[in-house]
Every structure is written in C-alpha cells, then in structure tokens.
Design brief:
- The protein is mainly alpha-helical.
- Helices cover 63% and strands 0% of the residues.
- The chain has 10 helices and no strands.
- Helix 2 (43-65) crosses helix 9 (172-184), helix 8 (149-164) crosses helix 9 (172-184) and helix 9 (172-184) crosses helix 10 (190-197).
- The longest helix is centred in the first third of the chain and has 23 residues, at 43-65.
C-alpha cells in the first residue's frame, strides 16, 4: 500500500500543534522591501509583513506535513493491525486527519454516545474504528503531496499589502517577488510570480 504511516517515529507534527514559531523580519530583508516601497516601513507595517510571512510559512509547513488520502489509508491499516494495548498510544501520535476518521467511525460504532469513550477509546474500539474507516469512511483518492497553494495565497496577500501601504500598480510584482523570496528563503522567478498573481481562468 502506498503512503506513509503517520504514527511511526513519534507524534506527527499535526498532532502536536504549531508547526512554526514566531518570525522577525531580518534587517537586510526589511531594507530590500523598503527599497521597493520607496520609503521606510513603520513598526506597525513591519509587523504586518512579519505576520504575512509567518502565516505563509505556517501554510507551507502544513502543506509539507499534511497527510494524503494514501497516508491516511496506510495509517488506518497499520492501526487496525496493532495489538489493542498499543492502539491508544498510536492513535495519539497519528495525524489529525486520521484521528478525525477514527472519531467518525467511533460515532458510527457507538449506539450510545459516550464523551469519555470518544475522548479515550479503548484499544479494541480503536481497531474496530480503523477497520470501519478503511471500509467506508476514507476514499482512496490521489496520493500526491498537497500543491503549493500557499504561494498563490501569499502572492495575493503580498499584493494586497502593497496596495494598503500606498504602492502603485507598477511595483506590485517586484514587491511580491521580494515578499515571496523572504518566505521561501531563495529568489523567486519573476515569471512564476506573475503566474501566481494572474492565474489563468
């Protein structure tokens, strides 16, 4: 079976909460952005840029770690094959999509909704839920990693920020290139950024 078992090797990043920490704009990056804008950025404006970059990096981290449907199926199959005594610990280490599939299956299995059991299901119920989720709740679906949707979203957000800072239409692409270069930690190609800003319909 294709995909990856998300509870192998410790808790999956999506099971642990935040994937990235706070971000502070380095001085060199600030100077490049100010050169594009043609003026100094105020402290509140720097915070806006930092928030945009932090959000984009969080989306990027999620895109890298988000389980595909194949990952979920493989993880469910691995859960279903475990000894009941190991199931609870493995479930806690799973990605959040697999855990959601298990919860949905538990709802289907339980005649009486018990919040305590839903929060801490016993091993045999986890195995039964994993088998049920494999049978009916989890589609096979595509197996590829999530696309870089965050880049398109960040490009649009960078252009909107440019406009809110008083930038004219002629400098929006150059500003967006600088912002995306900060997000990605490498220089972005102008043609690629133009495609992100002006997607074909």
């Amino acid at each position: 079976m294709a995909g990856r078992n998300t509870f192998r090797g410790g808790p999956h990043p999506t099971a642990e909460g935040a994937l990235v920490g706070p971000y502070r704009l380095p001085e060199a990056d600030r100077r490049r952005l100010e050169a594009r804008l043609g003026r100094t950025l105020a402290p509140a404006e720097i915070e806006q840029v930092e928030a945009l970059v932090a959000d984009a990096r969080a989306l990027r981290a999620w895109a890298r770690e988000a389980p595909t449907s194949q990952d979920v199926r493989r993880t469910l199959a691995a859960l279903a094959a475990l000894e009941p005594a190991r199931a609870a610990e493995a479930l806690e280490a799973c990605d959040e999509v697999t855990r959601a599939e298990i919860t949905r299956a538990l709802y289907a299995l339980m005649r009486v909704r018990d919040a305590q059991i839903l929060a801490h299901p016993p091993g045999p119920m986890i195995l039964a839920a994993a088998r049920l989720a494999l049978e009916r709740a989890c589609p096979a679906g595509p197996g590829g990693r999530p696309a870089k949707v965050y880049l398109a979203q960040t490009a649009q957000a960078a252009r909107a920020l440019w406009q809110s800072l008083g930038g004219g239409p002629e400098g929006a692409t150059a500003w967006t290139i600088e912002v995306l270069s900060v997000v990605e930690n490498y220089p972005m190609d102008r043609r690629r950024v133009q495609r992100l800003l002006h997607p074909k319909r």
